[in-house]
Amino acid sequence: MKNEEQARSLFGLSLTERPRWHQFLICSTGFFFGYLVNGICEEYVYNRLQFSYGWYFTFVQGWVYILLIYLQGFTTKQMVNPWKSYVKLSAVLMGSNGLTKGSLAFLNYPAQIMFKSTKVLPVMVMGAFIPGLRRKYPPHEYISAVLLVVGLILFTLADAQTSPNFSVIGVMMVSGALIMDAFLGNLQEAIFTMNPETTQTEMLFCSTLVGMPFLIPPMVLTGELFTAWDSCSKHPYVYGVLIFEAMATFIGQVSVLSLIALFGAATTAMVTTARKAVTLLLSYMIFTKPLTEQHGSGLLLITMGIVLKMLPENKPPSKRASNPKAKVEMESRHGEEEEEDESSSRVQIGIEEEEEKRPLV
């Protein structure tokens, strides 16, 4: 298991001693729960209430994260990494979150989800260039990722025909978020890999706290800080929705970091894609939107890509690893040979000593 020397837990539930599939199931369940609630809240706030303040909402969410981590008892004395190691990570994290939320002002929620779901390809590609990782993936994983991307494009094009809220500005914003996501997961995995003592709580706390100042310039330059404050002051119940969403997303974020630490960035990206597909279907069911045949074709390709990713790799096990009995016998035989060599050397020494003791004739 990856980072075996570091004990991993999720909200007090130990993961280290459990089988791999138990770990995967627990982390995925926490992630699905947190982000399904997040998806429903986001669509309610952005599409139903028409509150499109991505940078401001990310800022509020960050303070909720910090408060929740503080209530868990985490302090900076427990940090194992220097603050500077989180600067680059924090910049891409906040940029990704702000652009993702802000794009909902120009894209409808399903279209945004579909664009974001394509991040598995850039995550896999970028993993080959991140220092400390240099990841290489088998061919079937790239095929799986391509199927996902094609399916998502089909769905997005179909959605553009049935929903009016679709624009080039939104596509540019969500594309920028995708580029940042490609760095984000790999940078997080690199920190976990290079320092296995790093906890999920430290990762989330430091990246959030360091990243908060990065949100201030876009909020001020766009005037969003003042308009969002004014709008939310007139409708204070929005803060209740945002806090509830942030609490659910906090569970999802810690679960995602657990997945990255245990299984890597690419596998986590596949899990997030599966979650987006489920969220998308719920969006159409709850908010009664029309589904076309092109939507169905896209979802079919997405499913094929996920199933292909789940196929086990056919790696022939080494004979030594696969046959412990043979390994024991080999070690035993090796030990006997060493004993025989040692015994014969003792006998040789004894013969030489006897010859030295014999009187010369």
Give an account of the 3D structure.
This protein has 14 helices and two strands. Helix content is 74%, strand content 1%. The chain is mainly alpha-helical and 361 residues long. It is globular, with a radius of gyration of 28 Å. The chain starts with 8 loop residues before the first strand and ends with a helix. The longest helix has 34 residues, at 324-357. Strands 1-2 form a two-stranded antiparallel ribbon.
Number of strands: 2
Percentage of β-strand residues: under 5%
Q: Determine the number of helices (DSSP H or I, runs of at least 4 residues).
A: 14
Structural class assignment = mainly alpha
Spell out the helices and strands N to C. EEHHHHHHHHHHHHHH
Shape: globular
The strands making up the biggest β-sheet line up spatially as 1-2
User: What fraction, in percent, of the residue positions are helical?
Assistant: over 70%
Distance between the termini: 72 Å
Oligomer: single chain
Q: Main beta sheet, described?
A: 2 strands, antiparallel
Regions with little confidence, pLDDT below 50 for 5+ residues: 316-330
Cα radius of gyration in angstroms: 28 Å
Average pLDDT: 75
